[in-house]
Amino acid sequence: MNHKFLSLMVSAGAIAAALVLILVPKIENAEAASEARAAETVNVVETADPGEMRRTAVMLIKSDGHYWARTLVNRKASVDFMVDTGASTVALTQDDAQKMGLRPRALTYDIEIRTAGGITYGADVVIDSIRIGEVEVRDVRGVVMKDVLTQSLLGMSFLRELYSYEFRSDRLIIRQ
Questions:
Q1: pLDDT-based confidence at 114, cuts 50/70/90?
Q2: 79 and 160 share a domain?
Q3: Taking the CB of the first residue and of the last residue of the chain, which one, N or C, has fewer CB atoms within 10 A?
Q4: For residue 59, which phi and psi values (nearest 5 degrees)?
């Protein structure tokens, strides 16, 4: 009986060894194929990522604590804007409006605007284009302020037309 048991154990061991030799490479190949498919899927997602193909511009925070954007407006005027996410629209000084080809004296200042300093008036305008680096937004709603504004503001009427904008440490990154 010991001899039969030993023979049975040897046979079982041989079968187990054969299974290991046959199945382990197949399992490893299947795992490798699965990993390759997963890698292909990841690569496809990475190359299809729209963020990689979007135009991007970066603005740095200045010593005054604000983000500033040097822009090209209407493809002809260089205007420095202070970025203001609290401003619902782009707000322009009289001087900047003049530089970009608007005629501030000919505008009608009939829009009442409430600010922290009180009530003032502005004239509704559409800016043909505002460009920051490679990012350009067209037909931007804005307001030319009658008198109180000392600095043009890049407000939400510009920012909401972007694919995204994010504040990271000392940078404002915009994507289109």
A1: confident
A2: yes
A3: N
A4: -115, 140
What is the secondary structure of 86-141 as a DSSP string?
T-SSEEE-HHHHHHTT--GGGS---EEEEETTEEEEEEEEEEEEEEETTEEEEEEE
pLDDT in tens, 79-98: 999 999 999 999 999 999 99
pTM: 0.69
Burial class of 2 by CB neighbour count within 10 A (0 to 12, 13 to 18, 19+): exposed
Q: Report the DSSP beta bridge partners of residue 121.
A: 112
Q: How far is CA 19 from the centre of its chain?
A: 54
Amino acid identity of residue 12, one-letter, is A
What is the signed CA dihedral for 34, 37, 39, 42, rounded to 10 degrees?
A: -130
Phi and psi at 146, nearest 5°, equal -70, -45
CA distance 123 to 27: 72
CA–CA separation, 162 and 172 (whole Å): 13
CATH number of the domain bearing residue 73 = 2.40.70.10
For residue 13, what are the domain limits? 2-48
Confidence category of residue 50, pLDDT binned at 50, 70, 90: low
Residue 23: what residue type?
L
